[in-house]
Amino acid sequence: MKELLFGAAYYDEYMPYDRLQQDVAMMKKAGINTVRIAESTWSTCEPQEGVFDFSHVERVMDAMEEAGINVIIGTPTYAIPTWMVKSYPDVMAETVKGRGIYGARQIMDITHPVYRFYAERVIRKLMECTAHRKCVIGFQVDNETKYYGTAGKNVQEKFVKYLRRKFNNDLDAMNHEFGLDYWSNRINAWEDFPDVRGTINGSLGAEFEKFQRTLVDEFLSWQADIVNEYRREDQFITHNFDFEWRGYSYGVQPDVNHYHAAKALTIAGADIYHPTQDDLTGAEIAFGGDMTRSLKRDNYLVLETEAQGYPGWTPYKGQLRLQGYSHLASGSNSVMYWHWHSIHNSFETYWKGLLSHDMQENAPYREACIMGKEFSEIGSHLVNLKKKNDVAILVSNEALTALKWFGIEATAAGDNGIGYNDVVRWLYDALFKMNIECDFVWPESDNLDQYKAIFVPALYAAPEELLEKLKQYTANGGTLVATFKTAFANENVKVSHEMQPHILSNCFGISHQQFTFPKNTGLSGSIINGTAKGADEKAEAKIFMELLMPQEAEVLASYDHYNWKEYAAITKNHYGKGIAIYIGCMTDDNTLKAVLTDALNSAEVEIPEYSWPVIVRKGTNDLGKYVRYILNYSAEEQNVVYHGADGTELFSEESVQDGENITVLPWNLKIVEEA
Q1: Alpha-carbon span 209 to 402, nearest angstrom
Q2: Do 287 and 421 touch, CB atoms closer than 8 A?
């Protein structure tokens, strides 16, 4: 990409009055160079079956082209028009709750042939209208796609075919591997295959969810193939992946395997939302960015992020700018807001855009103007930031799904409590606060040996090939750190009948047979010394604990409890040329930091002297120069000693020398480019 993209989603269709020229003028003043259009308004583009009206799209393209503003075209397929449901009601997704009722977006069966017919037609009509336009730089296929729980007859028929291929048409093999003899769930003829929505079998249920995720892969690939027939070589194809939602972007998306789905794209994209005001930590921005950058090991696009949003997201002075640069610091080549203006009706009325409901200049807009000016001046030093990280976190959709079926805090009374993503974020956030930049890897990744250390959160279900790969990685000299709930079950969620952790027992030098919930259970041992903040504060086990029995491993921490004192909680083992550390329980933050410090030291990964709220993100720019973002996520002024080759602070153009003290104002940043 030649320049940073700075912009917003823009919907002429939603405007209360004609203000296109006024909006263009305000965009130009703000330095906005890109808008994203068309994705949400299928019913406007095709008001009746076979009747097309792209006038809104065309007039926006005309205006943007005249103004020199780029346009990204979104295919309008994630929200279906009323006429389709009226004529073909079975295009609505049939889920565990039955067939849906029209109203919300993302309520259709993405595999349904009728839906596909009309979706393909509107995509082609839109491409004919837009692909040749000079202003159009790329296409976004669909929007935050998931499988929407679709599990109707046609989906289940596809699933049975999928299983027949997986097990080579061998029902006995499937029954054995999934344990379907239990509660008389055995299937003795493919024709008898039951509705999977009612299954109580975690193996079958998890496999169905895995299959449902493949529907997303196929759907996005199908759309990309259509777009590829029309797009120019200089136009990209992207998609705005989102994350597990907890009122903001939190963790690995349960309903999409991003790593697989991204193969259809020329550039990965993401929607990243996060807490703000006093809750702005930068962690969610970094997490979403690191994950999206890792999909194709390349720069990515932030296609949606918040300008204001709900009342709790109204940014403090300086935060909009800090947030924007935080995305760039992770390797994004864009900052784009949802959306330009705040709409006046319907579901997202108070998901405020850059402009408020009066659509006049306001504080966020004025801050965007500052960013736009800066991007035009120094953007060439920031675009295409490349990273080479020593540390990776391995994530797995299969492990996530399995731990949904067999929860970490499950009891006889039911299944609730923390999930897979809580463990992922427990590790990630700790590394983030220590200023350790991470990539993400997936079970299929083939680049493990490039990392000095790999962290493995709660890899509950995994194929033997992956476990062997991790074992070999350690033997070859890597540092492997895994948490509780790792290597319990295979890829079919079948718990190992051998010593746990399965295959990795020798690697970690431990085994375990029992696990429980800690009650009044402290931690003691060499790793604990000096970690407590105060005399009255003890290191402790939290949430879940495995009773580790060391074999060759060194015990870093044991359970400080009269009944569990014979068991280890955290261990370290030398295996081959490498180091394997196992964290058998959730811990307090101080203990986790001590363990991570030990692991990083073992891996010879440099640990910066500064920590959150000062976050330093770095990489090499298009000019071949090393760039450091020094970000202050606090309301207090921060003083940081600069360590690196002499360079220039890009905003002030002042020289910076190694060892020099740098002052970063509240909710602000510095960017230093080495000479």
Answers
A1: 10
A2: no
Dist. CA 515–CA 233, nearest whole Å: 56
Intra-chain end-to-end CA distance of the chain, in Å? 23
237: left (phi over 0), alpha (psi -120 to 50) or beta: beta
Provide φ and ψ at 520, rounded to 5°.
55, 45
How far is the C-alpha of 573 from the C-alpha of 554, rounded, in Å? 6
180 and 226 share one domain: no
Residue 178 domain flag: yes
Q: Do 523 and 414 belong together in one domain? A: yes
Pair (218, 195) in one structural domain: no
Q: Is residue 608 part of a domain?
A: no
Domain range for residue 625? 614-674
Taking only the tens place, the pLDDT of each residue in 26-52 is 999 999 999 999 999 999 999 999 999
The H or E element spanning position 656 is strand 654-656
Gyration radius of the chain over CA positions: 26
The CA-atom distances, in angstroms, between 421 and each of 70, 107, 297, 429, 533 are 36, 25, 22, 11, 27
Q: Between the CA atoms of 181, 182, 183 and 188, what dihedral angle is there, to the nearest 10 degrees? A: -20
Q: 538 pLDDT band (50/70/90 cuts)?
A: confident
Which regions of 273-354 does DSSP assign to beta strands (E)?
A: 301-306, 334-338
* Two structure tokens written together for 22: 């006024």
pTM of the model: 0.97
